[in-house]
Amino acid sequence: MKILFLTRWFPPYGGIFIERHAQAVSLFNELAVLAILPGEKSSGLKPVIDDNADHPGYTVIRYFYRPSRCRIGMVAGMINLTRFVIRAFAGFRYISRNQGSFDIIHVHILTRAAVPAFLLNLLTGIPYVISEHWTRYIPENWGFTGVVRRSLTRLIVHRASAVITVSDFLKTAMEDCGLRSKKFLIIPNTVDTTLFTVAGKQEGKPAKRILHVSNFNERAKNIRGILRVIKILHEQRKDFEILFIGGREPALGEARKYASGLGLESPVVAFKGPVPAAELADAYRESSFLLMFSNFESFSIVIPEALSCGIPVLATSAGAIPEYFSKNYGRLISPGDESALLDNLNFMLDHDESFDPEHLGEFIESRFGLKKVGGQLDEIYRSVLYPNCTSYP
User: Fold this and answer.
1) What are 135-147's pLDDT values in tens digits?
2) Which of 47, 52, 117, 339 is a Cys-bridge partner for 105, taking CB atoms 3.0 to 4.6 Å apart?
3) Which residues of 204-223 are buried (b: 16+ CB within 10 A; e: fewer)?
């Protein structure tokens, strides 16, 4: 089968989890990724083709549009949607002429990216499925607003051949917003277990390392809560350091400034910003455990990545995390509970080596590995193309 991913996020412009799904799908199907992205300069209707060496197994075609500068939100939104749709149809033509027709469009992230797929389905009958990752449907991060957006999203979701969410938590949140699908399915985010492996953990370090990896969205990730507790912990013991990876300006600078205001400096607290995947895998393996103190999450891919590298996790029971997390993988605490965070940081620093790295890695391979998730997505595609078959060609 020929699958087309259609997305408004794709690395290096966010959406690493979409890239991982592309890796998984390409193991079973011919795949092209069409990414329509905002940029300082428009590419017009000229595609930007990624070097295949960067994405072995599939092709990435990008189009860039300049976001509207109109200060009226609804008008700007309509202009941006129009620019997006025009480039998406240019991409459809380019891919069809150069790679042949595609069987299914797999949309990632509602709502804008789904509009061209919806329109093409009306015109040609090519089916589309949707994967949703966004937390905008939950009260803590409410963003599913506007009569036009809500009505259009409901129409698009209803017509989709399948809607895939990364967790039951997100599926329920979408249903609570009145989104109804013929087929709601749960397929988790995936981990490249050939990259995130159990190996090479450093020995004899003078301090244990705590690792935090996120986009530094304060409302979601609660970076300041972590730093407040680290301040207290450092007053109690000196045998640890914490490394923060990820985040971009201005969030990264704000986190550094807050840490400095608490008197937390390197080497106790260090910030590294975004790093390549291979460097991130090394950081997991060189750490004692991963720390996530999130207020809300639709999935949290960094937790399976850390487990795949054989390190345990201290996290909150936010959103979907309890769906796949067990006491064998670390500790869960309530969101925002800084007292519990302090107690469990002490526990993890004293007991991180009691968790079996091989067991953690095997669990991730069996549930979140590329072959596992790619096979699940392949089965969905076949059920869409051959709805009346009990066994698929």
Assistant:
1) 888 887 788 888 8
2) 117
3) eeeebbbbbbbebbeebbbb
DSSP-derived secondary structure letter, 307: H
Q: What is the pLDDT of residues 39-73, one digit of tens each?
A: 888 888 899 888 766 788 899 999 999 999 888 88
Sheet strand arrangement including 162-165: 48-49, 59-65, 30-38, 2-7, 104-108, 128-132, 162-165, 184-186
The per-residue DSSP string of 36-99 comes to EEE-SS--TT--EEPPGGGSTTSEEEEEEEPPP--SSHHHHHHHHHHHHHHHHHHHHHHHHHHH
Q: What domains are there in the chain, each with its CATH number?
A: 2-190+369-385 (3.40.50.2000), 208-368 (3.40.50.2000)
- 119-132, pLDDT tens digit by residue? 999 999 999 999 99
Which residues does residue 243 pair with via DSSP β-bridges, in sequence order? 211, 270
User: How would DSSP label each residue in 164-217?
Assistant: EES-HHHHHHHHHTT---S-EEE----B-TTTS-S-------SSEEEEEEE---
pTM of the complete model: 0.88
Q: Residue type at 268? A: V
d(CA 242, CA 301): 20
**Cα-based angle 191, 293, 372 (whole degrees, multiple of 5):** 15
Helix (H, G, I), strand (E, B) or coil at 323: helix
Place of tokens 């599926």: 171
What pairs with residue 5 in β-bridges?
33, 106
